[in-house]
Write a structure and sequence with these properties.
The strands form five sheets. This protein has a two-stranded antiparallel ribbon. A two-stranded antiparallel sheet has the order 3-6. A two-stranded antiparallel ribbon has the order 4-5. Helix 2 packs antiparallel against helix 4 and helix 4 runs antiparallel to helix 6. It is built from 15 helices and ten strands. It is 42% helix and 7% strand. The C terminus is likely disordered. It has two domains: 187 residues, Transferase(Phosphotransferase) domain 1 (Transferase(Phosphotransferase), domain 1, Orthogonal Bundle); 150 residues, EF-hand (Recoverin, domain 1), CATH 1.10.238. The chain is globular and about 55 Å long. The chain is mainly α. It catalyses: L-threonyl-[protein] + ATP = O-phospho-L-threonyl-[protein] + ADP + H(+); L-seryl-[protein] + ATP = O-phospho-L-seryl-[protein] + ADP + H(+). InterPro entries: CDPK_Ser/Thr_kinases, EF-hand-dom_pair, EF_Hand_1_Ca_BS, EF_hand_dom, Kinase-like_dom_sf, Prot_kinase_dom, Ser/Thr_kinase_AS. Its EC number is 2.7.11.1. One of its GO terms (molecular function) is ATP binding.
Length: 387
């Protein structure tokens, strides 16, 4: 971030302080909310606005790449508005997975978030082109309200990323301009050698200032889908974060053991998943192993997460309890009513256990997968003696 200091669309560091326990970074304060939330709030949304937002996002990518920096975790949650003003700057945050790269250098560690990860990342041989793919996924969502590759599980999402076809036939794509679809296709080319560079994206006629992107409103269904996507992600993010008891941003052996209850099982899981014996289970290895052994869907694991929200043990998550959880996690822009509506199948204004499990396992009944993990996860663990 030091190398990108001064860029108008990159979060700035105000100071760094160290105590006996940790290094504390003081960052620029952004009060304007997340990218998707701003779009939902405004209610009026056009292709031209989507082009403007994409121009900002890809502009940051180009700046990063010109300095030999690869972000590696581009997703909507990592773009915040500085203020609530209409002309507020959009800032890129969370450079925790960023790395320096040299021309031609390839990386093998699997990082990122399921919907946005590039196919070559899953194949463990990638370079900065992966950032353009992630930006292309964001563009697809900006135009349609849903991710281009989705399934009922993370492993299914990865399979779609590797082999699935782009859908340009379902609504609202027939009403989207050909130029926009052309850019999406060129950003989501699976062969990174044939994919547009960030600079080439910025030269595309659809994305340029006063370019060909039409100024007519997009289908209202796009805003509705973005609303669903954003609300579900916030609730699921809190459910997953409650396992991280020390708020480190990483799930340790002890935390995962506490979440899954049986140490011998999780020890076997970690030993099997750490294929390169590095002492680190990366995100892809973790998800693959968890899905294979069905640990993420364990009844006791889900019940523990549900119980965290159900403060009074009533068997229901109420708006007040959800508000309390949001405050504990520092989520100030949560739309509680929307979050509950997306999960509350019987419309009683609260979430019961079965509704919670349905959300965590499959998403909602609307057909759109909502299993986006809010944060990239890297799990570091220490070897523990088996019982």
């Amino acid at each position: 971030m030091h190398h990108l200091s001064g860029h108008p669309n990159v979060i700035s560091i105000k100071g760094a302080y160290e105590d006996a326990v940790a290094v504390h970074l003081v960052m620029e304060f952004c009060v304007g909310g997340e990218l998707f939330d701003r779009i939902i709030q405004r209610g009026h949304y056009t292709e031209r606005k989507a082009a403007e937002l994409t121009r900002t996002i890809v502009g940051v990518v180009e700046a990063c790449h010109s300095l030999g920096v690869m972000h590696r975790d581009l997703k909507p949650e990592n773009f915040l508005f500085v203020s609530e003003e209409e002309d507020s700057l959009l800032k890129t945050i969370d450079f925790g997975l960023s790395v320096f790269f040299k021309p031609g250098e390839k990386f093998t560690d699997v990082v990122g978030s399921p919907y946005y990860v590039a196919p070559e990342v899953l194949k463990k041989c990638y370079g900065p082109e992966a950032d353009v793919w992630s930006a292309g996924v964001i563009l697809y969502i900006l135009l349609s309200g849903v991710p281009p590759f989705w399934a009922e599980s993370e492993q299914g999402i990865f399979e779609e990323v590797l082999h699935g076809d782009l859908d340009f036939s379902s609504d609202p794509w027939p009403t989207i301009s050909d130029s926009a679809k052309d850019l999406v296709k060129k950003m989501l080319v699976r062969d990174p050698k044939r994919r547009l560079s960030a600079h080439e994206v910025l030269c595309h006629p659809w994305i340029q200032i006063d370019g060909v992107a039409p100024d007519r409103p997009l289908d209202s269904a796009v805003l509705s889908r973005l609303k669903q996507f954003s609300a579900m992600n916030k609730l699921k993010k809190m459910a997953l974060r409650m396992i991280d008891t020390d708020n480190s941003g990483q799930i340790t052996f002890e935390e995962l053991k506490a979440g899954l209850k049986r140490e011998s099982e999780i020890y076997d899981l970690m030993q099997a998943a750490d294929v390169d014996n590095s002492g680190t289970i990366d995100y892809g290895e973790f998800i693959a192993a968890m899905l294979h052994l069905n640990k993420i869907e364990r009844e006791d694991h889900l019940f523990a997460a549900f119980s965290y929200f159900d403060k009074d043990g009533s068997g229901y998550i109420t708006p007040d309890e959800l508000q309390q959880a949001c405050e504990e996690f520092g989520i100030e822009d949560a739309r509680l009513e929307e979050m509950i509506q997306e999960v509350d199948q019987d419309n009683d204004g609260r979430i019961d256990y079965n509704e919670f499990v349905a959300m965590m396992q499959k998403g909602n009944a609307g057909g759109f997968v909502k299993k986006a993990l809010g944060n990239s996860i890297s799990i570091r663990f220490r070897e523990s003696p088996r019982n």
